């Protein structure tokens, strides 16, 4: 089991609105991967060097130094390195932006998450895990493997009760829209009605088709796999959105669970919330 002293690093991550990640070699691949996943799970703007960008900004010199001038506009830079005296780290010392360094030993001046490792590959694997640990410690709900929760969430929601409401999100708890669900405008009056049901002891299921256009094209004959993939890509951002809007609910489903009462903008019962 990986043991890392995270200290104040989770709060440092969550306070940043934009995050640049940088590494070299295998650590660059980790930086690119985590830039994508931090954005996906937190909604923050994150970026890392790519091969085209590095050759464009680097010219004939060291691309890392040129890229730093681009990265210094971020609120936080995460540097991943196996050597605390590397040229990349020396550049980070002078960047003038808050830095979080992942390294096998502490740096004299830069805030460092120390990852004790003997081998390069060991450090790289643990660096990847450490960034996920920081997100989890900050309260970000990371997705589970589809097969570990498919049975719980999709297969057998069979309660024969009259107090289960299953409510669609987009177009029902939000204003109608044809664009991105992440910029949807909440219907606060309807959310207040749902919260009232929740407070009165009703079971509230929320359902959504977010992510299904992509996932059903990949799994046209396998609805369970399509649901699981949509869940994987959209759950954490949807849950963060619902929390921001103050929605009270018991379970969130990507797909349509069994319930007694369905409220959906595509059905006849949408105005039941008004």
Strands, helices and their partners?
Elements (H helix, E strand, L loop, with lengths): L8 H7 L2 E6 L2 H17 L2 E3 L3 H8 L4 H9 L4 E5 L6 H7 L5 E5 L7 E4 L5 H18 L8 H10 L8 E5 L19 H12 L3 E6 L3 H7 L4 H23 L5 E4 L6 E3 L11
Parallel strand pairs: 1-2, 1-3, 3-4, 4-5, 6-7, 6-9, 7-8
Helix pairs in contact: 1-6, 2-6, 3-4, 7-10, 9-10
Tell me the Rg in angstroms: 22 Å
Q: Write the CATH architecture name of the largest domain.
A: 3-Layer(aba) Sandwich
Q: What's the mean pLDDT score?
A: 81
Work out the helix count.
Answer: 10
Order of helices and strands: HEHEHHEHEEHHEHEHHEE
Biggest sheet strand order reads: 2-1-3-4-5
| CATH C-level name of the largest domain | Alpha Beta
Gap from first CA to last CA: 51 Å
Helix and strand content put the structural class at: alpha/beta
The 3D shape can be described as elongated
**CATH superfamily assignment of the largest domain?**
Glucose-6-phosphate isomerase like protein, domain 1
Which range best describes the helical content: under 10%, 10-25%, 25-40%, 40-55%, 55-70% or over 70%? 40-55%
What number of structural domains do the residues give?
2
The main pleated sheet reads as: 5 strands, parallel
Number of strands: 9
CATH topology label of the largest domain: Rossmann fold
Strand content: 5-15%
Poorly predicted residue ranges: 148-159
């Amino acid at each position: 089991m990986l043991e890392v002293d995270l200290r104040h690093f989770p709060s440092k991550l969550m306070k940043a609105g934009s995050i640049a990640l940088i590494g070299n070699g295998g650590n660059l691949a980790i930086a690119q991967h985590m830039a994508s996943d931090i954005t996906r799970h937190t909604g923050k703007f994150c970026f890392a060097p790519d091969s085209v960008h590095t050759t464009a900004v680097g010219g004939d010199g060291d691309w890392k130094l040129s890229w730093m001038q681009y990265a210094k506009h971020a609120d936080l830079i995460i540097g991943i390195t196996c050597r605390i005296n590397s040229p990349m780290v020396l550049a980070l010392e002078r960047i003038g932006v808050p830095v979080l360094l992942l390294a096998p030993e502490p740096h004299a001046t830069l805030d460092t998450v120390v990852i004790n490792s003997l081998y390069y590959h060991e450090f790289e694997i643990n660096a990847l895990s450490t960034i996920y640990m920081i997100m989890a410690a900050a309260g970000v709900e990371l997705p589970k493997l589809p097969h570990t929760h498919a049975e719980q969430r999709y297969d057998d929601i069979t309660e024969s009760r009259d107090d289960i409401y299953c409510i669609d999100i987009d177009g029902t708890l939000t204003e109608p829209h044809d664009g991105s669900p992440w910029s949807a405008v909440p219907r606060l009056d309807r959310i207040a009605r749902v919260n009232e049901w929740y407070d009165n002891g009703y079971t509230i299921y929320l359902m959504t088709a977010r992510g299904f256009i992509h996932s059903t094209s990949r799994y046209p004959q396998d609805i369970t796999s399509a649901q699981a993939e949509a869940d994987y890509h959209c759950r954490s951002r949807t849950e963060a959105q619902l929390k921001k809007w103050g929605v009270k609910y018991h379970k969130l489903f990507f797909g349509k669970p069994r319930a007694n009462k369905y409220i959906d903008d595509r059905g006849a019962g949408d105005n039941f919330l008004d």
